[in-house]
Amino acid sequence: MLRHEFQPGRLVGGVCLTVAGALYLGDVRGLWAVPWFTAIPLAVGGLFLAGATTVLTRALRGRGGAEEEKTEPPARPGPPGGARRPG
């Protein structure tokens, strides 16, 4: 598996939406009763927390990230000896 950059904002958003799904799954199975409107604050609050986490992560990491990885491609080597081709 290829490694990738850890993105805590996506983790927070995913956890909040998973919790909302687990609450409704428990409601369907009869373990507890969840009002229908519970998903709205959970989803909106989760997305807000995910955005805030992403902003905080970018502030702590600085301007690095993808911009550091962008490098100019190496120059194409010319013919040996620096001679130019005719034409």
Please give the structural blueprint.
Layout: H1 8-28, H2 39-61, H3 66-69
Helix pairs in contact: 1-2
Shape, principal axes of CA atoms:
elongated
How many beta-strand runs? Answer: 0
Structural class: mainly alpha
Helix residue percentage: 55-70%
Average pLDDT across residues?
84
Question: What oligomeric state do the depicted chains represent?
Answer: single chain
Identify low-pLDDT runs: none
Strand content: under 5%
The first-to-last residue Cα distance is 49 Å
Order of helices and strands: HHH
Q: Count the helices. How many? A: 3
Biggest β-sheet: count, sense, barrel?
none
What does this structure look like?
With 87 residues, the protein is mainly α. The chain has three helices and no strands. Helix 1 packs antiparallel against helix 2. The longest helix has 23 residues. The protein is elongated and about 80 Å long.
Task: Fill in the keyword field for this structure.
mainly alpha, 87 residues
Outline:
The protein is mainly α. It has 3 helices and no strands.
